[in-house]
Amino acid sequence: MAQRKRRKNKLALPVGIITVILAVIGLIAVINACVGFAKDGKNQTARKAEYEQLLKPVVMFDPDTFDDLTKANKSQLLYSSIWALLMDEEGMSKYPYATGETFGIQIPQSDVETSFTKLYGSEIDVTQLHSSVDMSGYDITYDSALQSYIIPITGVESAYSPKVYSIDKQGSSVVLNVGYIGNKAWSDIENDEYTAPEPDKIMKITLRERNGSMYVSSIQASDGMEIASQITPSSTVPVDYEKEEESESDIFIPDETDISESEEAEEALSAESEEGSEEGESVSETAEEFSLPAEY
Fold first, then answer.
1. What is the mean pLDDT of the chain?
2. Could you tell me how far CA 16 lies from the centroid of its own chain?
3. CB 178 within 8 A of CB 231
4. Model-level pTM?
């Protein structure tokens, strides 16, 4: 009996060591999995932010859908390429003003071509597209002599900003579910808090790779139900009035006549107020002249 117990005790030590080793290996695997999951989440957030930055000028004026770039509205593509130049870090400050018949910011067509290729690749020959662009009252003039686009000196407000909800990698392409957030979505304030915006619609935007960069190859309608679970419920964000800044989607180019028109309006309002005061005094005096005796 003593020999059998010794044999069992001899087996217990190696079995215990193996169990501990397996437990350590399992713990390391769990830790690595958690770290990997955290890194993937961080990378996913960074990629979403990168794609949103790329898509800002693309979705800002709600372009028509297209399955193929060759079937897209070329004026809309050209329009967004021009605005992409005005929305970068330097913005419109890096461009001079045209002094010819049409006054405005002068953007060289070579810059527009570079911007167009960055957004939409090289499937379309942008050099054949140069022309004036009429976009619902905000017209951009193309001057062939200057080989430049003239941007009018006035304000313009975008319709949407992009919110990427999901990223689906498919070979060399990436399919994004993008929410179109209305420009006024953040304007609802309750108890000094903003209500987190929800998209007006969901679009499926496909990006393709070109020389290590991604460009827009299609914009299609998407079934919102497909990603409804990915949209977080509305929340509120406290308003910091001191740090509140103008939205990047609102681009305002001040008109030279704004100040003078404002002054004229103030003078007119002041004159009307004085006339109103004089008329009030006149009526008051007339009422005193025709006042009834106390017995009435």
1. 75
2. 59
3. no
4. 0.64
